[in-house]
TrEMBL record:
Gene3D superfamilies assigned: endopeptidase domain like (from Nostoc punctiforme) (3.90.1720.10)
Coiled-coil segments: none
Transmembrane segments: none
Pfam families, A to Z: NLPC_P60
Protein name (Swiss-Prot/TrEMBL): C40 family peptidase
Organism: Candidatus Accumulibacter proximus
Length: 169
């Protein structure tokens, strides 16, 4: 728990510093095309979701968990992030969450989209929040902590079920 309280503010500060220094440095050098900072790449709502999700990195997985103090399961994690970051109340289970929002193809994924996997021999049994660059944030399993994962790993590629978009673009 101590690690979460130290790492999350440090990570948030690093993102802000990258964004600030990137734009400050860009203003000192003449450029014809300005590259967006890390946070500028995402919509305001997606930024809020990502930052809230990163605050919860390191929280223990707990089956049926809906409280960060005692542990979260995958759908409890997603539910808390959406509620606290942007005020959207999602259903409780991954299966129910898979029925909310617009169905999107994998090549259309954007930060803040929900990604679903078959991890319990049934479709839409696991959910995470897409970050971009084939990475997603989730609460994986008993004995693990909320973390970032690469969707290109064979385990996730074989189990990918689809995605839903809840944020307007």
């Amino acid at each position: 728990m101590l690690r979460k309280h130290i790492l999350c503010p440090l990570f948030s500060a690093a993102l802000i510093a990258i964004s600030w220094f990137g734009s400050a440095h860009a203003s000192e050098q003449p450029q014809t095309v300005e590259e967006p900072s890390l946070l500028e790449r995402y919509s305001s709502s997606a930024q809020d979701l990502i930052l809230k999700g990163f605050e919860l990195i390191g929280i223990n997985y707990r089956f049926g968990g809906t409280n960060p103090d005692t542990g979260l399961d995958c759908s409890g994690f997603v539910q808390i992030v959406f509620k606290e970051a942007i005020g959207i109340l999602l259903p409780r289970s991954a299966r129910e969450q898979s029925e909310v929002g617009a169905v999107i193809d994998r090549h259309e994924l954007k930060a803040g989209d929900l990604v679903f996997f078959n991890t319990m021999r049934r479709a839409f049994s696991h959910v995470g929040i897409y970050l971009g660059d084939n990475r997603f944030l989730h609460a994986p399993r008993t004995g693990a902590e909320i973390r970032v994962e690469d969707m290109r790993q064979s385990y996730w590629m074989q189990r990918y079920n689809g995605a839903r978009r809840l944020l307007a673009r």
